[in-house]
Design goal:
Structural class: mainly alpha
Keywords: Chloroplast, Plastid
Largest sheet: none
Protein name: p700 chlorophyll a-protein PSI-A1
Order of helices and strands: H
Organism: Saccharum narenga
Shape: flat
Radius of gyration: 7 Å
Distance between the termini: 10 Å
Strand content: under 5%
Helix content: 40-55%
């Protein structure tokens, strides 16, 4: 799962899927 550290909402997704 590729996440972009550009959006703050996406940052939360990274916390959910470490």
């Amino acid at each position: 799962m590729i996440i972009r550290p550009s959006e703050p909402e996406v940052k939360i997704a990274v916390d959910r899927v470490p």
